[in-house]
Write a structure and sequence with these properties.
The protein has 175 residues and is mainly α. Helix content is 40%, strand content 9%. The strands form two sheets. It has a two-stranded antiparallel ribbon. The protein has a two-stranded antiparallel ribbon with strand order 3-4. The model has no long low-confidence stretch (mean pLDDT 83).
Length: 175
């Protein structure tokens, strides 16, 4: 149920240990502790950052993508940043904020810039569809069909979660 953030090419990925090998060597080869992650050329974000510069942190306060649905915690903005999803419990907000900080999801210029660039064309499409509805140019059924078509076209795309947020939440703030 995890949507993709970045496409992982052979040269830009590594196996991430959710609980680091240094902190929990007994979990080094435990499947539920292993995740695909960006890496090698992304030292300023992702799991490599988590285990080098993101310390100290409590792994219980991180979003664990095989147990937690990141979409319930995170909201992606049109400016490329990610924030805790509004109107959630304090513990959910804390888990989101801790994950954003520990993985450096908002301070890594390459990551934020790539996310913003991926959103650019979809932002215009979403704005247009919402404006058609607000202007009475399309009815609710047509609006729903257009949004559903756009959401289906996003499946498997890089930054899918961020792209989905544009169409599902129509949040054009932070531009």
């Amino acid at each position: 149920m995890v949507d993709s953030e970045r496409q992982l090419s052979d040269k830009k990925r590594h196996i991430e240990h959710f609980q680091s090998r240094n902190d929990s060597p007994n979990l080094t080869f435990i499947w539920s502790n292993l995740f695909g992650s960006c890496g090698k050329d992304n030292w300023d974000s992702c799991g490599i950052f988590k285990d080098t510069k993101g310390r100290p942190y409590d792994h219980n306060k991180l979003i664990k993508p095989d147990q937690d649905n990141p979409r319930e915690y995170l909201l992606f903005l049109t400016n490329g940043l990610v924030v805790p999803r509004p109107k959630t419990s304090p513990s959910t907000s804390e888990k989101a904020a801790t994950t954003i900080k520990v993985f450096n999801l908002n301070a890594a210029p390459k990551l934020v810039g790539a996310r913003r660039e991926a959103l650019r064309s979809s932002v215009n499409t979403a704005k247009e569809i919402y404006e058609w509805r607000e202007g009475g140019e399309i009815d609710e059924d047509t609006f729903d069909e257009l949004i559903q078509e756009e959401l289906e076209s996003l499946e498997g795309r890089e930054f899918e979660t961020a792209l989905r947020d544009i169409f599902e939440y129509n949040s054009f703030y932070g531009e």
